[in-house]
Amino acid sequence: MNFKEELQAHTSEVERIITAYLPKEEGYQKTVMEAMNYSFLAGGKRLRPMLMLETYRLFAGSRETSVVEPFMAAIEMIHTSSLIHDDLPAMDNDEYRRGRKTTHIVYGEAMAILAGDGLLNLAFETALKALEQKPQIPPLVKAAGGSMSECGAGNDAEETKPDSQRVQTALSILARSTGIYGMMGGQVVDVESEGMPIDRDRLDFIYELKTGALINAAMLIGAVLGGADREAQNRISEAARNIGLAFQIQDDILDVIGDQAVLGKPVGSDQKNEKTTYVTLRGLEQSVRDVEVFSNRAIAVLEDLPMKNTYLTALVKYLIGREK
Ligand code: GRG
Fold first, then answer.
1. Distance from C-alpha of 228 to C-alpha of 57, rounded to nearest angstrom
2. Minimum CA distance residue for ligand 1 atom 13
3. Contact residues of ligand 1, CB 6 A cut-off
4. Which residues, in sequence order, are bridge partners of residue 11?
5. What are the pLDDT tens digits along the chain (324 aa)?
6. What is the pTM of this model?
7. By the 8 A CB rule, do 48 and 76 touch?
8. Do residues 111 and 31 lie in contact, with contact meaning Cβ atoms separated by under 8 Å?
């Protein structure tokens, strides 16, 4: 299988997992469920749940995935919720997303606001389902030591402990990364920075929160649920920070030189909204180099870990030249 085929197979696997948590379109409030499902099912790369699953596998190996699955759906719901709100007239005012008319164009503004709210809340309802999974006994996986070593193996107390503590940690990462200290906080500064020049510090702050926080949450939750120890979690965060920056800079680049038919959303949105981006601040060529630098830093961190997931590393490499 070449990488494109592998990516397709992994995307299908993620789709199968996350769509199982969507609401049935029924009851008096059926319209909002339709609007939520419309946006969620429009496609998208499913990058965040994929990063979560593959980081989980990096530490958990081939152990079953039921504990991470509700979190995969939850993070994609939060991401989709943010896209719906980001496209609203009060924000970027965009008409196309994921190759379709945006939610407010199809369902009206009020229903789009409610669909975003609905997905955000459903995300936490869904993540909580991880507590209903039968307890697993994932061993702690250490970052250091040269080989994959397990703490707690042979220790009765650790062996019988449900992973509810890891789920609790994962829930708190998800909540904090979504709100004012994470994605939403970044969006606030982004909105306030429109129409004025900003420096690199402020731009990096926006990127690390607006885009980076959910990417970090995805990988860190995968690591926590997979049983990574604190040192390994820190290294995953370092990799995720670089992936998040590279991903947003590539988003800036594609907004200038991308193809709307491939992207599924309009190009030129940043210019329309008078946004400072990496491209306006550092130029196109330097931005392309920046994507490579940040991605290579992330790859180096992943390759330095004693445990390996070759697909995860290949995915980060692939993202450098992504066209959508
Ligand atoms: C939902 C709590 C809450 C707040 C919303 C509007 C908003 C606050 C935040 C916007 C955040 C945002 C849109 C950041 C940009 C991140 C980004 C690069 C999105 C594109 O992600 P892709 O390329 O999209 O992964 P697909 O469609 O492939 O999933």
1. 11
2. 83
3. 44-45, 47, 79, 81-83, 85-86, 91, 98, 116, 120, 178, 183-184, 187, 210-211, 248, 251
4. none
5. 899 999 999 999 999 999 999 999 999 999 999 999 999 999 899 999 999 999 999 999 999 999 999 999 999 999 999 999 999 999 999 999 999 999 999 999 999 999 999 999 999 999 999 998 776 655 567 776 544 433 333 333 433 334 799 999 999 999 999 999 999 999 999 999 999 999 999 999 999 999 999 999 999 999 999 999 999 999 999 999 999 999 999 999 999 999 999 999 989 999 999 999 999 999 999 999 999 999 999 999 999 999 999 999 999 999 999 999
6. 0.93
7. yes
8. yes
